[in-house]
Structure formats: structure tokens, C-alpha cells
């Protein structure tokens, strides 16, 4: 059996996440303590006690999801097969790089905290937006966003795409998508228009931060969002992490690539089961098991 480890991105966070892992597994507790120390404040307090609006802040949600995913991985130990590939959705790419040994946990925590802050700084609140569009072909949606003046941000699964850009352009695209037969088109509750050219200032900040960060050759190939291909060269990975800030998350293509490489089982390591749902809708479908809680891990 050829396996892949998948790591979730922003939107999978919830108050209380990883607390059960810390209570049940010393290795998970150590991971969380290392992230707190790297950031210089008790992120775990925000993760476990909230309030929800504080956890949802991009600058907190991103390191919190990294911490929770790495805590789950530490708790798993050798209960799942080693992967042939790793991949992460948007922010989750940093978790994948830590899992593959390319990034140190502490460096990754500081990077994603900065990433969240930089993304929020890039566009004043209210000026950007994102929306989910279901049930349109990519060809039709490409025409919609071109006409409206926005961008495709996440190609998540066949017929399930997220768009991003100026708020008025996204609103216009929602109406155009509905008129052209979208099953659903609705705005997302996000604080900034991620994965589009409006994030240019954030990409510049991340380029400077990544320039001074060690990236080692990963122990297993990382399927990166921007290329949807297996990457092993540290300098190319560094460039792709910068490009990812403004570029499209090619998740549908990434899952297709994994299937083409013979992957027959995936594990979603971290909170929630968003990626498990997307894997079911992939072409071809990819069996995926979510592993984010102490109870699920104990049952293995």
C-alpha cells in the first residue's frame, strides 16, 4: 500500500483542538510547548479556551493549525505507515514540510504566524473577499472571474472552487456564477482575499522571512500547492512557498498527481475532516482517514 499524509489548512480550527492529544500523549504535549516557546506566548491557551474570534484571527489560526497537526503526528508515532508523499492545503504545506523534515517546527511556527499577520496587513478589512462556487466547470468559472475581475484561489475538487479578489468583483462573480448555472455561490467568512495578486505585499514579506530560514531536503517528496508535483529541492520549495501566497492552491490536481503515483491510501493528520471530504470527491476518489483526535488515534 502506497500512502500519503495530508495536512489541513485554515478553516479547520476549533476551540479546544489538540487538548485531548496533550492530555493523552507526552509527545504531543511537547510539540505544543515548543510552539508556545517559539512564539513567545501561550498559543495553546487560545487554542483550548478561545474565544473563538481570537482563534479565528489569521495570525493565530495559522500557527494553531500547524501546532495541532504536528501534535497529532507526534501522538500517532508509528501507528500509520510511513508516507511516499506529503502534502498540505495552503497553510498545511508548512505542516507537511515539518513532517518531512524540511522545516524545523519552531521555524515553521514563526513563519506561519508572520504569514497570517502579513496576509492581514496586505489588504484593509472589507476591501477583499472570497467565495465558494459549486457546480460549474473550470472553463465556465475561468470566464466568470475574468469578466468580474477576480481570481480562482483554490481548485479544491471537481466542481468545488474558491474565488478571491476585490470585494465588489467577488460579489459580481457570485451573481455571474449563479446566472451561468452554479449549484451554489456564497461568500466565505474570511478576513482577507487569500491566494490572489492582492496578497503581493504579503508575498514580499514572506520572501524576506524565508530567505533567512533553513530549508533542508525533505525525507519524502512534498507535493506543493502551486506546482501540484513532487518537490525535493530546498530552493525550489522556498520559491514555491512565496508563490503560494498569491498563487492558486491546486488541490484537485495534487490529489490527481498522488493517484498517478500509485497512492491508494491517505491520512488527514490534524483537526477536522475537510481534506477527507475533498479526497472522496477527487478523480479518482482517494480513500482518506482523518486522524486528529486522541480517541481516533487510540482506536487504531
In short:
The chain has helices spanning 19-24, 26-39, 43-49, 52-56, 58-76, 92-99, 105-122, 138-148, 167-179, 200-211, 234-246, 251-260, 274-280, 294-298, and strands at residues 3-7, 85-88, 128-134, 151-157, 160-166, 184-187, 222-223, 230-231, 265-269, 288-291. By secondary structure, it is an alpha/beta fold. The longest helix has 19 residues, at 58-76.
Topology:
Blueprint: E1 3-7, H1 19-24, H2 26-39, H3 43-49, H4 52-56, H5 58-76, E2 85-88, H6 92-99, H7 105-122, E3 128-134, H8 138-148, E4 151-157, E5 160-166, H9 167-179, E6 184-187, H10 200-211, E7 222-223, E8 230-231, H11 234-246, H12 251-260, E9 265-269, H13 274-280, E10 288-291, H14 294-298
Parallel strand pairs: 1-2, 1-9, 2-7, 9-10
Antiparallel strand pairs: 3-5, 3-6, 4-5, 7-8
Helix pairs in contact: 2-5, 2-7, 5-6, 5-7, 7-10, 8-9, 10-11
Amino acid at each position: 500500500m502506497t500512502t500519503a499524509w495530508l495536512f489541513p489548512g485554515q478553516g479547520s480550527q476549533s476551540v479546544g483542538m489538540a487538548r485531548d492529544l496533550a492530555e493523552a500523549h507526552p509527545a504531543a504535549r511537547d510539540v505544543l510547548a515548543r510552539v508556545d516557546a517559539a512564539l513567545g506566548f501561550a498559543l495553546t491557551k487560545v487554542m483550548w479556551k478561545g474565544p473563538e474570534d481570537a482563534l479565528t484571527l489569521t495570525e493565530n489560526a495559522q500557527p494553531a493549525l500547524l501546532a495541532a497537526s504536528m501534535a497529532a503526528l507526534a501522538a500517532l508515532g508509528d501507528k500509520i505507515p510511513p508516507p511516499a508523499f506529503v502534502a498540505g492545503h495552503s497553510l498545511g504545506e508548512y505542516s507537511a514540510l515539518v513532517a518531512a523534515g524540511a522545516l524545523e517546527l519552531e521555524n515553521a511556527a514563526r513563519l506561519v504566524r508572520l504569514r497570517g499577520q502579513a496576509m492581514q496587513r496586505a489588504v484593509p478589512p472589507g476591501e477583499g473577499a472570497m467565495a465558494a462556487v459549486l457546480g460549474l466547470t473550470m472553463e465556465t468559472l475561468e470566464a466568470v472571474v475574468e469578466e468580474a475581475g477576480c481570481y480562482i484561489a483554490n481548485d479544491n475538487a471537481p466542481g468545488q472552487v474558491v474565488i478571491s479578489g476585490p470585494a465588489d468583483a467577488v460579489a459580481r462573480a457570485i451573481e455571474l456564477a449563479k446566472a451561468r448555472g452554479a449549484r451554489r455561490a456564497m461568500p466565505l467568512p474570511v478576513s482577507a482575499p487569500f491566494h490572489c495578486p492582492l496578497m503581493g505585499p504579503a508575498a514580499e514579506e514572506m520572501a524576506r522571512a524565508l530567505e533567512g530560514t533553513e530549508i533542508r531536503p525533505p525525507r519524502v517528496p512534498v507535493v506543493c500547492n502551486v506546482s501540484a508535483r513532487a518537490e525535493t529541492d530546498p530552493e525550489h520549495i522556498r520559491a514555491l512557498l512565496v508563490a503560494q501566497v498569491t498563487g492558486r492552491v491546486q488541490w484537485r490536481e495534487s490529489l490527481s498527481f498522488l493517484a498517478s503515483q500509485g497512492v491508494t491510501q491517505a491520512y488527514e493528520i490534524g483537526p477536522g475532516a475537510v481534506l477527507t471530504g475533498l479526497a472522496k470527491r477527487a478523480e479518482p476518489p482517494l480513500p482518506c482517514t482523518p486522524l486528529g483526535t486522541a480517541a481516533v488515534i487510540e482506536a487504531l
